[in-house]
Design brief:
46% of the residues lie in helices and 15% in strands. With 723 residues, it is an alpha/beta fold. Helix 2 crosses helix 3, helix 7 crosses helix 8 and helix 18 packs across helix 19. The chain is globular, with a radius of gyration of 28 Å. The structure holds a DNA duplex (15 and 10 nucleotides).
Length: 723
Amino acid sequence: MDVSPILDPLNEAQREAVASEMLPALVIAGAGSGKTRVLVHRIAWLCEVESVSPYSILAVTFTNKAAAEMRSRVESLLESSLGGMWIGTFHGISHRLLRTHWQEAKLKQSFQILDSDDQLRLVKRVILGLGLDDTKWPAKHARWYINGRKEEGQRPQHIQDHGDVTDRQLIRIYTAYQAACEQTGLVDFAELLLRSLELLQQNPEISTHYKAKFRHILVDEFQDTNSIQYQWLKVFAGEENPIFAVGDDDQSIYGWRGARIENIHSFESDYKQAQIFKLEQNYRSTNTILSAANSLIGNNQSRMGKKLWTEGGDGEPIYLYTAFNEQDEARFVADKIKHWVETCNGRRDEAAILYRSNAQSRVFEEVFITQSIPYRVYGGFRFFERAEIKDALAYLRLSKNSADDPSFERIVNVPTRGIGQRTVAMLRDFSKQHQLTLWEAAEKILQASLLAARASNALQEFMRLMHKLRHDIDGLELDEQVDHIIQVSGLVKHHGRDGSEKSKSRVENLEELVVAARGFHMDDELYEGMQPLDAFLTHASLEAGEGQGAQWDDCVQLMTLHASKGLEFPLVFIVGLEDGLFPSSMSMEEPGRLEEERRLCYVGITRARQQLVLTYAESRRQYGSDNYNPPSRFISEVPAELIAEVRPRAAVTKPTVRASFQANSFAAETGVKIGARVTHVKFGEGVVLDCEGKGSSARVQVHFENVGSKWLVLAYANLDMLA
DNA sequence: ATAAAACGATTTTTT
DNA sequence: ATCGTTTTAT
């Protein structure tokens, strides 16, 4: 057996992980250390050397993109196609299980997936249906609650309200929402995971089958798994099958969405024989950039511990620019990019601008437009999430499943056909009273002539239209079905009415949907046994599509720090480095959340290959008024010797460069270090967040578990250090 | 049924 | 400031 193609391209640490025994393994893979490569080569190793059949491998990722990349890289390494191997997202694989075992999972065979927008609408309707005031019970909050409970594996009947009124109402909403989903055959994202976990837990014959099938389980981005996902993995693993988990605790930035970094620690105790590997050699960035990243992340307390290094050189220093305001900041970045393109022979798409919040992109866009610099903003609405597309899909869904109430509500008056609020309210009441779907309620109401003539006619017209559509599209090809529906429903005409740019693009999108349907192939095993339309609808829900169509132009890349995870660029700007913005004011007071912000900064820094530029503005217009935020504490956590200030400003008090000295000298003088745990006689235990001043006026900001954050004068506070 | 006016929120978002 | 949502007026 020639193992050289598999092992030769790897470094020592990677090789050890790839060729490790068939035992549980945890690979802590630093940024740019070849994480995907290890995963891909491990699969190849299993197939080629350990003679594991691809049918026995389950590889799980978070995004469709990562799944597709992994599959194609394994295929090109093995030079064969991996038909039988299950590579997919947690949601995709859960979905596949539920489709196969829909009966055991107590689902309708034709269940459809509710995306988060659909979910919000449904939650809102449920709240109103319970007679609650939706301003007192915001749908967003209820959705957050429901998803949170599902991610903890909790069903309404398991939850105690502890006599709390708020909890009791939320549980009521959850219960009613779930009932609505069951009745209409809809499944939300969290439900896909929980339902498939329950399926496995409650049906031993099914879990036994899959445990016998999947002898090897591989997971990407393990630090991002939530508690249900980890449980789900453990079911597949059972006692027998080793999990090969790859992740980076320092890149865990989705804690606010339920990701549990603790799963990494649990893994060690859950699998005692687990081998731990660390990948610390970085192939992406210069030494300077890595030193900055190492130093910054060193301020976090709860880490596995890891230090990136490279064989490469130091490269350029990190530039720091202090802008007067956000306009100045954007102009500076634009100039720097021009310089990169014109004198350094770089390309625009090698430059990325990373910011904490989406709102920050605007100023950059304005400046780029006036200077004619092509750019591309990541994020925003994706294809299948656009309103007009969702309208068209709702027609398709309703024509397929008349019980789909959310789709019914969405399109009953789109385009407007004289079915107003009152009529819809009547339908809702009637359906609720008689336990009917909206469609059935409409039929009954028409039969009984309960509506005024005008509303009755309009509703009748709608029902006739749906009947006609259902009849017309029977037997047509998928793309013909889509085309027929968008034409006959009047959606195209509706959007094409006024000739504005926006309406033009909506019509184009609808036409694009026909093209997407034409290009949609059922060849994926995922869609085995499904009707083409069901499969297409599933595809639309599970894969929302790219933010923008392929943009091959040479564009500057603008995105949030979150969106940058997994990407790399020769030239990276991290902008808006101000306390209150980044770290966000909403996370600054809580040590755990501040650490996540710091990891986000670490992610940003480690995106850069050659050149990293940091900027902050002394004054920034936020929410309509001018704010003067102090420079981000993260700037001072980068060693000053790595930083070159672009505009050194002698006269003005600017502690930026001195700040890291300041934190260090503060520690030397007072013995109090940022991040240290302390106790206070009155306030109890806490963590040091920040420090300032010296001598008798030295003060520290401490976050106490019970009373929140406080600034304390060291001389009076009588803090005790904890080990 | 549409348009204007008032209101309110405003970190990040893999599926 | 600005964007999306909801209320109110035409």
